Amino acid sequence: MSNFSNIQPFSCKNETDLLTGALSKSALVAAVEEMTANNNAHAFILLDLDGFKQLNNTLGHVAGNQLLVDVVNFLRKGLRRNDIIGRIGGDEFFICISNISDLNYIHRIAKHICVLSRHPLQNGGISSASLGIVRSPHDGISFDELYTRARSAVRSAKKRGGNCYVIYDDPDDVASHLSGAEHGCRSMRFYDRNWLATYDCNTDTFRYNSKIGAPIWELMEKNNYADQETIAHFRSRFTKLVESDVPNAYFEEYLFYDEQQLPHWYRVGLIYPVVGDVIAITFTDIQEEVSARQSLERMTEYDELTGLTNRSMFCRMVEHHIKKNADIAESGVFAMIYFDVIRFKAINDMFGMAEGDRLLIFIADTVTRLLSQDDIGCRIGSDRFVAFVDITKRPPEKFIEQLLSAISMYYLPVEITFNAGIYIIDNIRMTADAMLDRAILAQSSIKGSYTMRYHYYDESLRDEMLTEQEIVGMMAIALNAEHFVVYYQPQYNHSTGMIAGAEALVRWMHPERGLISPGLFIPIFERNGFITKLDLYVFEHVCRFVRKCIDSKLPLIPISVNFSRHDIYQTNFAEMLEELRLKYDVPVRYLRLEITESAIMAAASTRTKSSASCTIMAISWRWMTSEAAIPPSMSSRILNWIS
Q1: What is the mean pLDDT of residues 543-559?
Q2: Does pTM surpass 0.85?
Q3: Do the beta carbons of residue 262 and residue 158 sit within 8 Å?
């Protein structure tokens, strides 16, 4: 693994392009020759902006130059520190990805660069790029060899409509996710303009600009404007319209080819207003509309920073893969592995967001390298990642072990690690979102642990989650309805056998479910902070009970009330207690506050230590000198632990 501190950003290399700051061509050639001399595997990507000449002609050279600068800046942000980008000339850039042989990684970084190349334009459109990818030494070792073959791949990408990538000598390896239509109708570009033809049902003739000609499908076939599938589809749609006995109209998008076999999108309309009369056939140029739509679709499917899929795209791909492999999917051959970086926010705070972004890119690169051919990686957001893997090729534990090992090598003076949750897919009727939620639930059960690096999902976790959700949904209503009942457990002096005090205990008496164990609801309330409201509720009931005893002239003993660490974090907690005590005019000698040692330890080990200390000292100052308020031994222990 490279030590990132020893790598100089490519913008600091010897000779740079004055406009963009990328390497100039001469410096680029030297850098490529130096890289390929070691015979290691490298990838090189030639980037050519789509329609850049037209952009310059339409918006001017200032806008064109700004786009070039923007593209380089975004590439800098999205690539690794040791990747190199050079400007060959015009809108052509050459990107060098060192020490890479994994095709999965090459595909991911190519998709990532396609996303990074998309920017809003002044005319409302969105820029895009065509990429040609070559590998060294697979496709050559000299700059001229690599550039020539990358240029050939770019031409193939342009023929596919742009906004995509082609790997040289592997034309079928470009994933369909970067192709245009779902329809299957390949395309044509007649004369790069809108045009109209008509068909007269009475005379069975086609008319083009006042001239009678052959049927449209014959012209398509003769001039190679479309393939046989497209021609058959168009002719079938046209025939059904002619045979219809009601007026109708159809509009569909087709990808046609012009005389140079360059692709172009058209919206074709078949308009039949009067049965048995004339059908109008319209061809509307929608190339810019389709390009903009495809760009927006890609931007919503892939994470801009890392190039991995986002959650919605990931779930669609997982569901498609499971459906395609339904015969084996339910036998537990696939798994979702979810993880996030421990203390990632602290890394951002200490080293800056730019370093945090570089770490996320590094993690995405590592995940991609570890994935098998049909596995899928995803960045859900922030530092949260998930992988869909075939566990017949590698156990989840092995994947996590390799990932932990690689990430721990990232150069930062802090430990980089994570906890992972694993869900073995055993129900293919479940949505991918639900599967992911199970992996997240498994991870949350060990989140922050340094002894358990991963945990498998089981149904008991879901049962606990549903129980917790049910309790959370009922807790506020139960408190307002006073379903929480306070009991008093006597405390005896073992030397004398006399009763010395009592401890207030709370129980939840649900009107339908009956008694709910405090072991079930107390931990939940401590996690979500509701425990403070419950503790104040208990304290008020104790004050009310003491006041009632005083008014009834009954004998009294001190009553202890337990408080959690969440309570002593409240800056106004002492005031709230004092307000309740004064409300019922309860002498301090009848009240005791008990704060567990675990709560004090928790306070002493967090940044809220000073807040907890102030709270306890405020209570102590008001009550400690009073009779039997806080036991002196407890008070001294509290102050010693906090100080």
Answers
A1: 91
A2: no
A3: yes
